[in-house]
Write a structure and sequence with these properties.
7 strands; globular
Length: 268
């Protein structure tokens, strides 16, 4: 009986590739023309992936793609995509599939923030934030996930936030949207993990992108920085490193997890 049960155990890989090599794979990155998305796209290209940058700004997407290191798999792609529009998402995903044949990695970086006191926050700003940050993530995950499921393999990484775990002043819509991303990710991981597609999140603290520097270079930013145990904010490259790990072969048994790149801010 013991022998029979042992034979029924499904084997994993005998070795694990720790190089984060993505040669031969295509990665689609939303919001990839700037900030975290740009850093993720560059990290992927540096490790051999062909990258499709989709962004609401067509010119910026094309420029960012042209600036990436060349890879053997073919030219990087820069495409317009409005993650709040079903047809726009369908066109962008199909364009990537037509050019590359497959998508092995999806990273949902596109996001916005509308800051206001909860009692003053307009329903339009609330709806727009959830449509971009949460429903946009779902649209891309569904559209790309269907093809990954057909292929029997894939990696999806959704960018959440420390705001998914704690309440932040004037962040009602943003906190709600990012908490929703965590819930969505868990369900996708549960439904798709057994079919070869893993789904995880990365939750950064404030990230020193151009927008991050502009928003937090003030007294409130300095106070928030002091609340982080490591004493500083994150860089785009540090977030990209976490995404790269989750997209790599080394993370084959990581599914439905949230990797916090927050310097310990949410441990209190």
């Amino acid at each position: 009986m013991t022998t029979d049960l042992a034979a029924a155990l499904r084997p994993g890989p005998a070795t694990v590739d720790l190089t984060n090599d993505l040669t031969g794979r295509t990665a689609l990155v939303t919001g990839g023309a700037s900030g975290i998305g740009d850093a993720v796209a560059r990290a992927f290209a540096e490790r051999g992936a062909r990258v499709a940058i989709v962004d609401v700004r067509a010119d910026a997407a094309a420029s960012a793609a042209a600036d990436l290191p060349a890879v053997a798999a073919g030219a990087h792609l820069g495409l317009a995509c409005d993650v709040t529009d079903d047809d726009s998402v369908a066109r962008a995903v199909q364009a990537v599939l037509d050019a590359a044949g497959s998508v092995e990695v999806l990273v949902n970086c596109a996001g916005i923030v509308a800051l206001d006191a909860a009692e003053d926050l307009g329903t339009g700003a609330w709806a727009r934030t959830l449509d971009v940050n949460l429903t946009g993530t779902f649209r891309l995950a569904q559209a790309v996930g269907r093809h990954m499921l057909d292929a029997g393999a894939g990696r999806i990484v959704n960018i959440a936030s420390q705001a998914a775990h704690v309440g932040l002043d004037r962040h009602a819509a943003y906190c709600a949207s990012k908490a929703g991303v965590l819930g969505l990710t868990r369900v996708l991981a549960l439904e798709w993990g057994g079919r070869g597609v893993t789904v995880n999140t990365v939750s950064p603290t404030v990230v020193l992108t151009d927008l991050g520097r502009a928003a937090w270079a003030n007294d409130a930013g300095l106070r928030h920085q002091d609340e982080i145990p490591t004493g500083r904010f994150a860089t785009p490259a540090e977030v990209a490193a976490a995404v790269l790990f989750l997209a790599s072969d080394a993370a084959g048994m990581v599914n439905g997890a949230d990797l916090r790149v927050d310097g310990g801010f949410t441990i209190r």
